[in-house]
């Protein structure tokens, strides 16, 4: 199992980070439209960190951690950038949960950094 993850860690990392960005971009639209469509969904606010949407934040963070951990990189600069981007993502998520506005910017920055770096590393390994 770990060999499979290790072999595909850049694909896992880039995919999960891209989905994380989509989740962060689409979630606010869903919460704005939810009261219009059905008032029963308004208790699943992303800001509160609860419910399904808060769980997705944690899933994306863990998938990113696994991908960074299993990415075998000869290039130490790439390795440092991957860990730095993941830490920025984690810090941004924590700040977002505390209601800090800068948290969203850090989450987008960290996720984008993971996507780009995993893609670069994927092509460097070929």
Overall description:
It is a single chain. The chain has 126 residues and is an all-alpha fold. The chain has one domain: Up-down Bundle (Four Helix Bundle (Hemerythrin (Met), subunit A)). Helix content is 80%, strand content 0%. The protein starts with a helix and ends with a helix. Residues 40-49 have low confidence and may be disordered.
Class derived from helix and strand content: mainly alpha
Percentage of residues assigned to helices: over 70%
The tally of helices reads 5
Counted up, domains total 1
* N→C terminal distance: 22 Å
Number of β-strand runs? 0
Order of helices and strands: HHHHH
How does the overall form come out from the CA principal axes? elongated
**Poorly predicted sequence stretches spanning 5 or more consecutive residues:** 40-49
CATH class: Mainly Alpha
> According to CATH, what is the topology?
Four Helix Bundle (Hemerythrin (Met), subunit A)
**Cα radius of gyration in angstroms:** 16 Å
How many strands, what sense, and barrel or not for the largest sheet?
Answer: none
- Compute the average pLDDT: 78
Q: Using the 3D structure, state the CATH architecture.
A: Up-down Bundle
Which properties best describe this structure?
126 residues; mainly alpha; Four Helix Bundle (Hemerythrin (Met), subunit A); elongated
């Amino acid at each position: 199992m770990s060999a499979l993850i290790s072999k595909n860690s850049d694909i896992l990392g880039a995919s999960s980070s891209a989905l994380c960005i989509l989740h962060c971009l689409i979630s606010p639209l869903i919460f704005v439209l939810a009261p219009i469509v059905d008032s029963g969904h308004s208790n699943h606010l992303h800001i509160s960190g609860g419910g399904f949407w808060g769980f997705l934040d944690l899933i994306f963070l863990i998938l990113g951690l696994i991908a960074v951990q299993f990415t075998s990189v000869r290039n130490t600069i790439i390795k440092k950038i991957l860990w730095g981007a993941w830490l920025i993502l984690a810090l941004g998520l924590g700040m977002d949960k505390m209601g800090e506005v800068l948290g969203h910017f850090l989450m987008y920055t960290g996720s984008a950094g993971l996507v780009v770096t995993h893609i670069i590393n994927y092509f460097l390994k070929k």
